[in-house]
Amino acid sequence: MIDDDEDVLLAAKLLLKKHAHQVIIEKNPKKIPFLLNNDTYDVILLDMNFSKDITSGKEGFYWLSQILEKDPSAVVIMITAFGDVEMAVRALKEGATDFVLKPWQNEKLLATISTAIKLNKSYKEVDKLKKAKKQLEEDINQPFKDIIGHSRALKEVFNLIDKVARTDANVLILGENGTGKELVARAIHQRSLRKENSFISVDMGAITESLFESELFGHKKGSFTDAKEDRPGRFEIANGGTLFLDEIGNLSMPLQSKLLTVLQNRQVTRLGTNNPVAIDIRLICATNMPVQEMVADGSFRQDLLYRINTVEIKLPPLRDRIEDIPLLVDHFVEIYSKKYRKEIRSVNEDTIYKLQKYDWPGNIRELQHALERAIIMSDNTELEPEDFFFLTHNKSSSQDLKTDNLNLDEVERSVIERAINIHNGNISKAAKELGLTRASLYRRLEKHGL
């Protein structure tokens, strides 16, 4: 409540503190911007006149406009001792929720505030519904909005997700660390018939053998030393939804056997009980390990592999989808510029070129961390190649030219072909890579019939 009369403020606080969680009173209207910046309020009671001998309400209308500019959904009740119908109508037209005259009747003031609070809640509900509708529309228009890229390799992944999502087929996602395997698993779940139910993610590499059964199948109170209460396992929690087992290639053979038994019987038995519980889950697994080779050398059960890979999705490493790097860069620059309050507005072409030349052994996760670090360290509004001085392992060094032919013409032809292939036929970039001018490269292309 903002009013220049201290007696009025104290009287109002004594009345309202019995009915409200918190009542803030303020004599000086110039503190309104500060108050709005530091908190949100269900209802604001605002006097219309703060200067002696002024009855026009001009000050009140000014501060009403300031409040609504700051928060258009604010619920403001105007208060004056000199009210009339014309002023009341104007206050409502300019955005006030209601109008009260001093001296007020306590019951009437409480009723007015109660109605205003209900209105405030309805505003919030409408706002929540609008945001939900907007989010739903965005999800419909961008079904893979969390998976960023438009390369051919990624489009093939999108196609597989579309085909498999609405089935209950078990899926095995293969890919190097940092390629986004969990994002793909979540995309499958969000487009499945189980999307209204739980998506439960389990990092199999982080679960010790001693806790495997307790974590996945649950336990009964007293079944082991630290079992202080009954606890369902991840399979039970995911019942009706999707269970994502990440890094499944890390499981030992004994744990693979226990997992296979549950998948075959479609039921789990908590530790310390003899009562099996039926489960209905959609299983998605992921690994960065070569499971086919592991089957061949006997470190992964073939029958378990048959169970988990009804459909197999292979995620391309970032070095095989370099055309997606500019989109990923824009995405992470926006996130970390906001997080660290930096005015990074762009990434220049030379920087993108450097990032596309690097082979990204850590894939998207490494790119994300590299951009976060560069943004923290940069003092400019544009990221430069020098901001990524820590990237030392690049394509040209990791893909050394291998040839048994020492004929200089043949070696030159081979190097030129490779440079053009790396840059998808872009002559300017290929020439820059080779240390040539465009004209020099064109002469060599003509010389070698390329």
From TrEMBL:
InterPro entries attached to this UniProt entry: AAA+_ATPase, AAA_lid_NorR, CheY-like_superfamily, Homeodomain-like_sf, HTH_Fis, P-loop_NTPase, Sig_transdc_resp-reg_receiver, Sigma_54_int
The Sigma-54 factor interaction domain covers 147-376
UniProt keyword terms in alphabetical order: ATP-binding, DNA-binding, Nucleotide-binding, Phosphoprotein, Transcription, Transcription regulation
Record-listed 4-aspartylphosphate modification sites: 47
Q: Which residues are in the Response regulatory domain?
A: 1-117
Looking at the keywords, is Transcription present?
yes
A Pfam family hit: Sigma54_activat
TM annotation in the entry: none
Q: Which domain of life is it from?
A: Bacteria
Record protein name field? Sigma-54-dependent Fis family transcriptional regulator
